[in-house]
Design brief:
Subunit structure: Homotetramer.
CATH superfamily: Nucleoside diphosphate kinase-like domain
Helix content: 25-40%
Shape: globular
Strand order of the largest sheet: 2-3-1-4
CATH class: Alpha Beta
Distance between the termini: 18 Å
Order of helices and strands: EHHEHHEHHEH
Radius of gyration: 14 Å
CATH architecture: 2-Layer Sandwich
Family: Belongs to the NDK family.
Mean pLDDT: 97
EC number: 2.7.4.6
Number of strands: 4
Low-confidence stretches: none
Subcellular location: Cytoplasm
Function: Major role in the synthesis of nucleoside triphosphates other than ATP. The ATP gamma phosphate is transferred to the NDP beta phosphate via a ping-pong mechanism, using a phosphorylated active-site intermediate.
Bound molecules: 2'-deoxyadenosine-5'-diphosphate, magnesium ion
CATH topology: Alpha-Beta Plaits
Oligomer: single chain
Largest sheet: 4 strands, antiparallel
């Protein structure tokens, strides 16, 4: 398995509850290295571009408003098979379905407010990292 990078977001429901450190500990315990990280406050339009793939879904407006409701922490995680590994650490989209010990099982409030985002494939990881970070900000 190759060394990969993936885009992670600690969402507003988690930053509001001061969970950034606890979530980062789960990433680091799983062998994922945080090679870039910053706290930002998205506008609804910026969230809308990020989640454009979901624009036809009924929850799109609610999702964009939620992502812009409070600051988020955007980060790049690096490691062996980082994209799939991060999805494992995150757990299923709906916390009711998430395996014990995952971020979403422990911290997510609902399917909509589910604490973390993680890229789902190499192509989306590359595009999502480039949306938030310049090459100079990625310190391997
Ligand atoms: P994931 O974040 O696990 O990749 P996704 O890409 O299918 O899940 O959806 C993106 C986000 O949209 C998800 O984290 C929360 C929101 N969402 C998905 N399904 C939803 C639903 N049924 N109701 C409300 N929000 C939903
Ligand atoms: Mg997704």
């Amino acid at each position: 398995m190759a060394i990969e990078r993936t885009l992670s977001i600690i969402k507003p429901d988690a930053t509001r509850r001061n969970l950034t450190g606890k979530i980062n500990a789960k990433f680091e315990d799983a062998g994922l290295r945080i090679v870039a990280q910053k706290r930002i406050h998205l506008t609804p339009a910026q969230a809308g571009i990020f989640y454009e793939v979901h624009k036809e879904r009924p929850f799109y407006g609610e999702l964009c408003d939620f992502m812009a409701s409070e600051p988020v922490v955007v980060q790049v995680l690096e490691g062996e098979g980082a994209i799939a590994k991060n999805r494992e650490v995150m757990g299923a989209t709906n916390p009711a379905d998430a395996a014990a010990g995952t971020v979403r099982a422990e911290f997510a409030e609902s399917v909509g407010e589910n604490s973390v985002h993680g890229s789902d494939a190499p192509e989306t990881a590359a595009a999502e990292i480039a949306y938030f970070f310049s090459g100079l900000e990625l310190v391997g």
